[in-house]
Design brief:
With 636 residues, the protein is an alpha/beta fold. The chain is 43% helix and 12% strand. Strands 2-3-4-1-5 form a five-stranded parallel sheet. A four-stranded mixed sheet has the order 11-12-13-14, sandwiched between helices. A hairpin with a 5-residue loop joins strand 6 and strand 7.
Length: 636
Amino acid sequence: MNPRCPEPPENSRGYQDFAELRAVGAPYIDKTRFIPKLLGMKFRILLITRPRRFGKSLLLSTLYRFLCCNYKDSPDFEPQLDRLFAGLEISRKSHQIFYAVHRARYAVIMLSLSGIEEQSFSACLNCFAGLMHDLYKNFEFLLKRPELTAAERRRFNLCLKLDEPGDEAQRRALILEAVPQMARLLRRIYGRKVLVLIDDYDAPLEHAYFLTARCCSRQAEGALPPDAADSFCQQMARFMRDLFEPLVKPPATGKTASGECASAIYRTIMTGCLHLPEERIFPGADNLTVSGVGDDDGLQEICGFTQTETQKLLESYGLSSHEDTVRKWYDGYRFGQRSLKRIYCPWDVICYCKEHEKAAAKMPRPKCYWANTSGNDLIYEILSHLTADLSCDFEVLLKGRTLYAPLDDHFAFRDLWSRHAKTQLFTLLYLSGYLTVTRPSPGKSRAQETKAPVDQGKLPPEDMKKLPLRLPNYEITLLFAEQLLAFLTGGRESPAGLKAKRLYEALLSGDKDTAEACLNYFLWTCLSVPGAGYEPVFHALIVDLLETAAPFGARVKPGSESGTGYIDVSVIEEDSSRGAVLEFRRLKGKPLLQEQDEHDVLKKAAAAALKQIESRGCAEGGDFASLKSVKCWGVS
């Protein structure tokens, strides 16, 4: 988890259950128009891949609520279902026939693999066992049905005991057979084809490779551990292949168990962050249809918020005037290949709205919400070991420019430590939402690419393997800035680290000349063009340098409220009873000035920043009340 980014505000976490969201009356961005399109597609198994926190879990929950039949024959079921979808696109007259034909007409099995993140394969197997136990517990009422044979009742009861310790081989067999067996029961009892929904299908495998990455980072040559053939990730890949085989493979000739299951299952829909063809966890891949961030399949807007949807959500919270801020921080994603669709990160937009709703008149600044959610471990582990070559690529991205990078359609975790590591890394960053595709500016060569934003457009037919990539927005820019600066400073005892200590001491002691000299050094060495106008990159530079130099117990706080205002960076050292407050000013535009005139303009801007600290009492009270010395700095 990234310590720099704040935790999302209380009550801001997105709803993953569609029924719960509708019950509490929370704002809902209507995606039900995609239900007819999904069921109208030809597929046996559909994999929808999108970055984390883009609404995949809510999408599957919506499908479950709309399609799942009335298992218990409750008389209130259909009226409640109609109220649940009242006023939404799916209930409108244009979908009247589809609504009548498909509403509550399927037996649905829904599973989520998101919580299976243990330190060993045996511990993960226990999680799978608990998952299947919960599945059978939810269907325990089936034991009262006369259609079950004695053998089926016996196996059903064995699955209900999966949460208890037992023989590992027997438990593994029960886990692998649990979904096929339940599918056969539902098909026979209810006479309906079975729809299987699996959320975060790739979470266990990604976590296994994160542990491998952490192990590899300690290897001198960066190679896989000697026992890679029997490693945690290899065991996990084999297990998941066995788990998914009955869902993907078409029925064989003859009536085998897996054949019966396949014929019982109507379709399977899975969600995840990555498509992993090289891990071979989907036997019979011909039956697999993939909808990814780079596909033109009409589903580009099924997850995430469009521009119009974001505007409506901001309006519902009374935040229409914040549209530019939200666009700068949380927009920037482009899904598709030749027809790019503009998408906002929904988690960020919702957290931003909720925090402003809670803060009322205080109006806090935007923060990095998405970057601090779970699921970043593998990315952070890889980025924490940057090479000089990659740091140069990241500098290009931080300047707001386009980077042409090779992407691999056949991404494989294990290749992150091979000679193809760079291609695999950029593929992982693109698929995970840390980079997004753009298009070249008309009439410009690659070397001439500017930082102008691109809303929509067509990608050139040539060179599709090397796509033009950019950082999507300010939030991701901050994340990359931190990783790059950590690489450039090189730790406390490196030359840059020692100079960071001098800067830290100068700021807390009030040594203006030393502070100015150190700041100029870092600006010219770490950011030759300071973020190309990205103020958050400049903030991240200062915070990283001060945290590198700060002694144990000292607190370096980026962006916080103080007094009646808001300060960019603060340092609090309670042991020595001293602190510092920094407020930044960035000159807008690029006026052509003489050297002396430019110095005067910068000096006035710094003085205005210092005046703001004093007039708003930013260095008084609160965390600074007990400190004997607080130095205030205006930086421009």
